[in-house]
Amino acid sequence: MGWGAWLREQVYPRAGFKRSTRYVIYRMRRLPDQPHRVARGVFAGSLIGFLPLPGLQFLAAWGAARLARGNVLAALLATFNTNPVTTPFFAMLAMTLGHWILGIEKPLSWEYIRDATEIAGIDLWFNVKAIFTPAIARWDGLVQFWNEIYWPYFIGALGPGILLSAIGYYVTVPLVEAYQKARAATADERAERRGKLRARFAEAAARLKRRGDRGGDEADDDGPGSP
User: Is the overall model pTM greater than 0.85, yes or no?
Assistant: First the structure.
């Protein structure tokens, strides 16, 4: 697979996001834990998934799940609630809301976000090289990015993130309960069938044993010396 095909697969898989979503839900329902613990893990991981924490989502989800006393694996799975298609729209919503909350009146557009991110990246790389050279680090682009992009994004994502994660919590509880009850009923039916099958085998073995005992007695009666 070439780099172009690999990148396209990461952005939009050939199987689509529907299959990935179904797999995550399937794995969550099968988690061997109490439904409320699984749901708390979903809430924690989903909230972390909405926040701008690149490279730290798994670690943050693990910490949030432990803090909420939720299922850690459910939290890690729930961080996949965002994808490259929906994230840009949620990010714009979160930054717009964050600008409104913080009273920032800068014009917010894709070009503005792109330019601010590019300048911050250039400054960050320059500062890394400045560690090994006499150059003086520059922070203007990074400070602008923090104040006008990242921090508003973080603040604006909290409200919608909490709301959507709470919905995920209340949806997860009945799903896990229903699956666990169905699984328990299926296990009981299988155990009952196995019990009946073992009883049939035991009965058949007993019949064969009785027939063998009767056959042995008849052979003794017909043997030499019998009256």
Answer: no
